[in-house]
Amino acid sequence: MTGKDQLSLAAVVAVLASGISLAPLTRDRTYLMLAAVLLLASAGLGAMARRFVRSEVVVRLVQLIPIVLLPWLVPEAQNPRKLAADTYAYIQQGSAPMPFHVGFAVFCVLLIWISYLVVESLVNARDAPGWTFVPLVTPFLISATFGYFEANPWLFVLTAGGFGLLLATAARSRVAVRPDASGREELATLSWRTGISRAAMVSTIGAIAVSMLVGFALPASFRLSSSTAGPGEVRFNDPSLDLIRNLNSTSNLPVITYRSTADGGVMLRLAALPILDDTGFHPGSPDLVAMPLPPAGGSEPATVTTDVTVKDFASGYLPAPWIPTSTNVTARDWKWDQATLAVVAVGSSPDTATRNLIYSVTSSEVPTLDWFARTDALPGTEGPDVTLQVPAGVDPRATDLVRRLTSGKDGAFRKALALRDYLRSDLFTYSTQTAPGTTLQTLNDFLFGSRTGYCEQFAGAMAVLARIARIPSRVVVGFRPGTKTGDTWEVTPRDMHAWAELYFDGVGWIPVDATPPSVFGAQPTASPSASPSATHTSAAPTESASAAPTQQAPVTPDVDDDGPNPLGVGALVVLGLAVVAFAPNLVRRLLRLLRVSGHGRQPHEDAWDEVWATARDQGVRWPRGSTRAVAAALAPELDGSARGQFVALALSTERERYAPQREPVGAVSGQVATIRKGIQERWPGAPTWLDRWWPRSLWPRSR
Length: 703
Known about the structure:
The relative contact order is 0.09. It contains 22 helices and 17 strands. It folds into three domains: about 5-220, no CATH class; about 245-525, no CATH class; about 565-700, no CATH class. Helix content is about 45%, strand content about 10%. A hairpin with a 4-residue loop joins strand 8 (about 335) and strand 9.
């Protein structure tokens, strides 16, 4: 096996190791086996081609032949246009880790195969193994960027290990058969262990530094949306982030199915967002208690039972009807949030805790706002609370609007009904083709500008107007009842929904959906009871509620805008300019220090490499032949001691190559310094700006 064959095989191992970084995006692992087949086929054909031709271009063309196997191995690939369109739609709708999809598997295979061809070209055609880090790290960057989760550092270790393997193989291949007499093997003295450890260390440190700068430069709102709040391992990511993506989904596949004793199905509530600031509604600080939920005085027995089966839906919140009173999910993996009555995951993988989960929930039926508004029960609402706070950025016209709509209305119920009916009027248009979110700018435009939005804007506007009317409110994200098939309800991603919850003294939190019913057709309503059902007092927002502490807004830094952080972007720009300006010369200096340190396995060979690099940087034509022949050609051109030192180094290098002996090694640094000075004085040359910026000794060379 030749040195190039060894490099080709090492490239297969390195690229497959880096391809494992795509695993968190999908639950399918067959893509790795298919990729291994293509890579080994390309490597084998390349090795055979090198026995007959010397052109690496021809070898690379031969290595393209295995792609014809793909339509035979994957019949769907016979129609690439349709497969690409299906794959794009699948990626748009899916969430990691996605179930098996033939198009996504083919995408992963092609990405790995193309990475292999690039790596193969760099190590065998261009003799530049250091540049292989770019294609090798690409799968990891894809997984970290588009996976919506924290990238596993062990996946980066695999990539760094593959990179180190390539560097070490490149070094070994240069000395495995016979040393290169030209003296250009600057990596030849690196052992396998040293090569791997150095490559992994440099790669890891560089990746950590760059990722910190990139994270600092991201828009502030993006960083805040990924932050956590609350104790321990619980992750409280904003559940409204994927709302618009699910609403625009074209998938009809159910992600949740359930059976319920409630007529017309149930709304499956995920989480409540009580905190309102300039960037929209967010979750509050949770008040987690162990399950089961402590009973609240005055609560009526649960009257609704719902058996839920979750399929491909990942969340840290348990989909449950309002008002939940008990559930049979594992107590050690879930807890109640007393502040919102959400069921929150606290297990080892909280963000995906609902996937493939089967459970039951008992809940109380909730009378509608219409039912309360028709009664004589007209309780008021009072008390400062986080659910009454209105940022100063809300359009001042909103106060006049609320005053006009609620004028003459008795009690909070009828005021809330007037606000809801106004948002359901023909003045507003439902459309998902609008800016997502509930930022104050978006809500102001929805109320007084375009008056166009989807459920998130309707819910956010309802909550803001209610707060202005002194009715505590919050936005809730969950699912509409879905479609009934037989005795089972099926919920798809397009059933994801947002609505408001308003708090009334003596009653509790009541769901209020301001989205026009005509958008979805007939909507189910809960069966009104003869009297209001008391909610859990632990969910009350007022400071006087004995069972619940007042919700506190999470501590977040002030955010003036949602654009990139100028300081972070500036740091990245400075870093990029510094790398472009100083990296080549810095690498050249580091190589010089390593070569003249005298700590390598072949110190004289290292020193000879540095003399060759100096000559090439100065534009000297390096003669072919042994070190003795090179010294005979170049040494007479030098003056003084440089001539003698050149001859002496040539002889010691030759002896080290062909008659190695265990003898003390003198200081080669002084010897090299003398020779370098002599070369620079004899051939001062006139290097171009490119030579000054990128020394010639660092240029890639063909073997």
